[in-house]
Amino acid sequence: MTRIERMEVDVAAARSSLEGMLLGSYLDSFNVSSLQVALRLINASACPDESLYVDLSFSCAATLRDGLTSPSNVGNVDFFVGRTVFLSEVYGKIGVEVSGVELDSEGRLVLSMADSVIELVATDEDVGGEDSVWQVVMERPTGSGRSLGGSVSCVSTENAVIFMLGVER
After folding, report:
1. What's the burial of 35, exposed, middle or buried (CB within 10 Å: 0-12/13-18/19+)?
2. pLDDT value at position 167?
3. Burial call 42-71: b when 16+ CB within 10 Å, e when fewer
4. H-assigned helices in the chain
5. Comparing 7-21, 71-85, 127-141, which segment has the lowest mean pLDDT?
6. What is residue 48's three-state secondary structure?
7. Coil, strand, or helix at residue 133?
């Protein structure tokens, strides 16, 4: 039986894991359920001869913007208005590769995709919940002995944003 071990990590370790899961992947589909959005990506470069699913789920504010414009005030826009705009634009990114991953200590996750970026931001409304603000999960390859797979999540506590790394043991 596989056990998932979760441990708190710093922003550099979280960023490194996210880069390994997301760089080179491309958006395949997305799903919306209540407040949760799930982006399904496929990473064909992380493991030779296998394409792995990478699921990015989030309940925080999100925007898709031109990569040349400065970061927006995502958290200052009405959540549902912002969600409507995001969903109408993300459809156009299906099939586009993730070429860059940025993460800051406040939980802002930015994915560069061609000439655009997807930006996820933890806001004051996300503080204190026990659920993740966003989470990235990569499926484990079918071959045994590989160290790929696992998850990175962002949890916003009352005092700070923390990053959790999940690995199969």
Report:
1. exposed
2. 74
3. bbeebbeeeebebbbbbbbbbbbbeeeeee
4. 11-22, 79-90
5. 71-85
6. coil
7. coil
Query: Which residue do the tokens 């800051």 mark?
Result: 104
Q: CB-based contacts of 15: which residues, under 8 Å, 6+ apart?
A: 101, 102, 103
Q: 84, exposed or middle or buried, with CB in 10 Å at 0-12, 13-18, 19+?
A: exposed
Alpha-carbon 115 to chain mean position: 18
Q: Return the structure tokens found at 161.
A: 């944003």
Q: Per residue in 6-37, pLDDT tens?
A: 899 999 999 999 999 999 999 999 999 878 99
pTM to 2 decimal places = 0.88
Six-digit token pair at 105? 């200590």
